[in-house]
Please model this.
Amino acid sequence: MRSNRLIRPNAPKAIGFMLVGVAALALAGCGNKRELKPAQGHGLPPAPYGRVQSRGADELLKAPIQAKPDRNVELRSRSQEREAEAMLAAARSRKDAAINRLTAELFENLAGLQAAQRIDILTTTSLLPQAEATLQSALAGYETGKVDFATLLDAQRQIRKSKQDRLKAQGDAQSRLAAIERLLGEDL
Model:
């Protein structure tokens, strides 16, 4: 009894394998590639009315030339149209991406130019005169003994820093202007 139970659960698997094997053998002949020949003892079908000879197997399998061109030409022309449309859309996409990139770069440089010009104006009209006034005040205080030498040096350092900031802003403005001219392709 015990050995009988071990065999039964595997029986459906074995039957399944056998069915697969039989199906594989039955289908093995379907993929053969050989010349078509009529069955033994049978000939080719009779020739159509008005035809002198019957056609061979190769002739029967070939599609008439009149059936092929229209469909092929139609398919080819439609696929060429779709390809041309896709190429045109891709070119438009590339053009739009280039325009967007150049526009963004132009506006970035324009904003940088305006910021550099504002820094130059602020430094020239406000920071530098204030630093010079601070130096004059520190110099007068140093001469009277109310301010130490470090304060005087700090006032001179502030003037130099203001001049350096102004030169840096002017250089940045020129650099941004050159980048804008390069993007536009003409001098401003």
In short: Residues 1-7 have pLDDT under 50 and may be disordered. The CA atoms of residues 92 and 98 lie 10 Å apart. Residues 69-188 form one domain. The first helix runs from residue 2 to 27.
